[in-house]
């Protein structure tokens, strides 16, 4: 049941993300993370939602957690570096 629940939360969260409803996306991804805190993909999507909501520090934290779980997650590395370069300006 948990795996199916995570899939639903991710799909709904991604839908919110695509519609730029970042706060609801954050809520769904955070709920998925409580079920499985070891999935780098959930951290990545949460990072995207935080980034969209303008919460850049939180986004960087999520991308760093993604990379801690999967050091080859290149999209997380790219997003993290882009935000950090924005924050340094």
Protein described:
- By secondary structure, this protein is mainly α.
- The protein has helices at 2-18, 22-35, 40-52, 56-69, 74-87.
- It has a single domain, classed as Alpha Horseshoe (Serine Threonine Protein Phosphatase 5, Tetratricopeptide repeat).
- The longest helix has 17 residues, at 2-18.
- 30% of the residues are buried.
N-to-C SSE series? Answer: HHHHH
Q: Briefly note the CATH topology name.
A: Serine Threonine Protein Phosphatase 5, Tetratricopeptide repeat
Low-confidence regions: none
CATH architecture: Alpha Horseshoe
Distance between the termini: 46 Å
Q: Count the domains.
A: 1
Write the layout of secondary structure elements.
Blueprint lengths: L1 H17 L3 H14 L4 H13 L3 H14 L4 H14 L2
Which tags fit this structure?
Serine Threonine Protein Phosphatase 5, Tetratricopeptide repeat; mainly alpha; 5 helices
Concise summary:
The protein has five helices and no strands. The protein is mostly helical and 89 residues long.
């Amino acid at each position: 049941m948990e795996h199916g629940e995570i899939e639903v939360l991710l799909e709904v969260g991604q839908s919110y993300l695509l519609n730029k409803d970042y706060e609801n996306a954050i809520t769904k991804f955070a709920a998925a993370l409580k079920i499985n805190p070891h999935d780098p993909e959930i951290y990545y999507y949460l990072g995207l939602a935080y980034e969209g909501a303008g919460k850049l520090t939180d986004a960087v934290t999520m991308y760093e957690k993604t990379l801690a779980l999967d050091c080859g997650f290149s999209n997380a590395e790219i997003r993290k570096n882009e935000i950090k370069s924005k924050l340094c300006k």
